[in-house]
Amino acid sequence: MNPPARSRHLLVVDDDDRIRELLKEYLARAGFRVTAAAGGAGARKLIESFDFDLAVFDVMMPGEDGFSLTRWLREQRGRAGRTPVLMLTAMGAPSDRIEGLKLGADDYLAKPFEPEELLLRIEAILRRAQDRPTTEGPLSLGRCAFDPDRGELLCDGEPVRLTEAEVALLRQLARTPHESVERMELANGAVDPSGRAVDVQVTRLRRKIEADPKVPRYLQTVRGIGYRLAPD
């Protein structure tokens, strides 16, 4: 059963004082515990001090923008690095949305927006996060082990070089081990959103992980859906 809304702690980061206070007030009335920051520096201090269930980042901010803040957050170890992120921006171009998703944002809402839509999107992200099994420490993949927090792959005890795209793909799959992830969902984190880049990355990863890349044991294809990571 999901925890009651009042137990969920949200971080709102927006440099516009009026919008920040309106969001804080609206979400607090909806039953959330809300902490706010006016920019990236304040947000980093809060993230280092508290556990948040979800973060709402404005993209266009002076100093550190929402993209940079999301990139930094995803580099953090443990629970902080897995904090769901909803990005708010006045930029509606598909390229901006793709950029946010590539950096690890969970959803993207363009300004102006209806507060009710923001609330529904937050609830949807929290439901997905609640249903998502969490893993602590490295995942065993036969002779290899992948540490999602560090983004490190070891095979036979030796580090294996991974590209940033390969690390991002493995991290996405590691969030829900033994469960299928849609190919286009994985493509949100790829340079090529068509999905072709995902297939290339999977082929390369199999050469690094699998004893027989043509008969994969750990990085499996789920026909008609996408891929699945099946650790020991």
Structure write-up:
This protein is α/β, with parallel strands linked by helices. It has two domains: 5-131, Rossmann fold (3-Layer(aba) Sandwich), CATH 3.40.50.2300; 139-229, Arc Repressor Mutant, subunit A (Orthogonal Bundle), CATH 1.10.10.10. The protein is 40% helix and 21% strand. The protein has nine helices and twelve strands. It has helices spanning 17-29, 40-49, 66-74, 78-81, 94-102, 115-131, 164-175, 183-187, 196-209, and strands at 9-13, 33-37, 54-58, 85-89, 107-110, 139-141, 144-147, 152-155, 158-160, 181-182, 219-222, 226-229. A five-stranded parallel sheet has the order 2-1-3-4-5, sandwiched between helices. The chain has a four-stranded antiparallel sheet with strand order 6-7-8-9, covered by helices on one side. Strands 10-12-11 form a three-stranded antiparallel sheet. Strand 7 (144-147) and strand 8 (152-155) form a beta hairpin. The radius of gyration is 18 Å and the shape is elongated. The model is unreliable at 1-6 (pLDDT under 50).
Keywords for this structure?
alpha/beta; 2 domains; 232 residues; 9 helices; 21% strand; 40% helix; Arc Repressor Mutant, subunit A; four-stranded antiparallel sheet; Rossmann fold
| % residues in beta strands | 15-25%
Q: According to CATH, what is the class of the largest domain?
A: Alpha Beta
Relative helix content: 40-55%
Question: What topology, given as strand order, has the largest sheet?
Answer: 2-1-3-4-5
N-C termini distance: 28 Å
Give the overall average pLDDT. 86
Number of helices: 9
Could you give a short account of the major beta sheet? 5 strands, parallel
Give the class from helix and strand content and strand pairing.
Answer: alpha/beta
Question: What is the CATH architecture descriptor of the largest domain?
Answer: 3-Layer(aba) Sandwich
Globally, the shape reads: elongated
> Could you state the CATH homologous superfamily of the largest domain?
Response regulator
CATH topology value of the largest domain:
Rossmann fold
SSE pattern: EHEHEHHEHEHEEEEHEHHEE
Number of strands: 12
The total number of structural domains is: 2
Low-pLDDT stretches: 1-6
Radius of gyration: 18 Å
